[in-house]
Write a structure and sequence with these properties.
This protein has three domains: 101 residues, no CATH class; 80 residues, Methane Monooxygenase Hydroxylase, Chain G, domain 1; 145 residues, Reverse transcriptase/Diguanylate cyclase domain (Alpha-Beta Plaits), CATH 3.30.70. It starts with a helix and ends with a strand. The strands form two sheets. Strands 2-3-1-6-7 form a five-stranded mixed sheet, with helices on both faces. Helix content is 58%, strand content 10%. Helix 10 packs antiparallel against helix 11. By secondary structure, the chain is of the alpha+beta class.
Length: 352
């Protein structure tokens, strides 16, 4: 099924058989079991036209991804089996149609935006409903006041008062629910912003966060350093990428600890960047040298087999940012210094 088919609006004269065939094709395409919960989800998506649900599904499946039970649960709240029990949600994974199962960060971000949009639209609908209910309550309250004014029946006064109190309590409950939804959405958005600026392997800030911090340091003396793990490919080749990832995490932790108070980010692969703001060259060099020595003093080993990985070091290049110089040019200068350190024997720092 093409993505455009998800946006097709079901016309009023479309036969039930045609609608069923579209739903069947969607379930087969997404490898979803034909239980009532999945069928109801697909039916709603097909019959709401180009609504929020269809747009969210399109964003989640764009790029060859298939929906998971967790995706559906996030979009509609829950998925039920024929016995109407909630289906347990397995750990999150994304499946590609191609053999490469590595998640596409862009598609993942689009899915997050789609789910957030669904929540925002649901929140807006709830606010509109409360507004309409409040208007109805105002009219009923005015009518009740007229009724109270025209009667001396105590039972009638009690009945009208009870009715108004019930309305107030119902409105309070709805408002509390809306407030909770808004708070949850705010937390989710803040978490999304933070995740967008953090490297998932090392938990360090990523290049985007580094660029933002550099932009925010305008007008202050800034030194930028690039650090690259020496002969890291040999670690991956000898012990595998899982061990290589652990080594990267250990080096990231050592850099973060030794450069406390300065921004350390994962620049990509086995390369890290350090931003020194408001300090002179000697302080920046001393800090980075301490980090280099700390990493070089460690002896890594494979946890499962106790096999020695040995010494792992990094080389670094550092330069002072010139006024009005963009970050790309600064990285190029730091990178040239880094490779000069590599050619000079590795496990050392070269600085301007």
């Amino acid at each position: 099924m093409t993505p455009g088919a998800l946006r097709k609006t079901v016309s009023t004269d479309e036969g039930a058989a045609a609608l069923f065939e579209r739903i069947r094709a969607f379930l087969l395409d997404q490898r979803l079991s034909p239980d009532p919960g999945h069928y109801a989800f697909a039916h709603r998506m097909m019959t709401e036209g180009d609504g929020a649900l269809a747009r969210s599904v399109k964003a989640l499946t764009d790029g060859g991804f298939r929906l998971t039970v967790r995706d559906i649960a996030a979009l509609v709240g829950k998925v039920t089996t024929p016995e109407t029990e909630v289906v347990p949600v397995p750990p999150r994974f994304v499946e590609r149609r191609a053999s490469d199962a590595t998640p596409d960060p862009v598609a993942h971000a689009q899915g997050l935006v789609a789910r957030t949009q669904m929540q925002v639209e649901g929140f807006a609908d709830m606010v509109h409903a409360i507004r309409a209910e409040t208007e109805d309550f105002g009219r009923d309250l005015a009518a009740s006041a007229d009724a109270i004014g025209g009667t001396c029946d105590g039972d009638e006064v009690v009945r009208l008062t009870s009715m108004m109190l019930a309305r107030v309590h119902a409105a309070e409950s709805r408002l509390a629910h809306v407030t909770s939804e808004a708070s949850a959405l705010r937390v989710e958005l803040e978490k999304a912003r933070e995740n967008a600026r953090r490297d998932p392997l090392t938990d360090l800030p990523n290049r985007r966060a580094f660029e933002e911090a550099f932009a925010g340091a305008a007008g202050q003396p800034v030194h930028v350093a690039l650090c690259d793990v020496d002969r890291f490919k040999s670690v991956n080749d000898r012990f595998g990428h899982a061990v290589g990832d652990r080594v990267l995490k250990a080096i990231a932790a050592a850099l973060g600890s030794a450069c406390d108070g300065h921004l350390v980010a994962r620049h990509g692969g086995e390369e890290f960047a350090v931003l020194f703001v408001g300090v002179d060259r000697d302080v920046a060099m001393a800090t980075l040298e301490a980090a280099r020595a700390q990493v070089a003093s460690r002896r890594f080993r494979v946890r499962e087999s106790n096999e020695q990985v040995g010494v792992v070091t990094f080389s670094a290049g550092m330069c002072l940012a010139h006024p009005a110089e963009d970050l790309t040019a600064i990285f190029a200068r730091a990178d040239a210094l880094l490779y000069a350190a590599k050619h000079a024997g590795r496990d050392r720092l070269h600085a301007e």
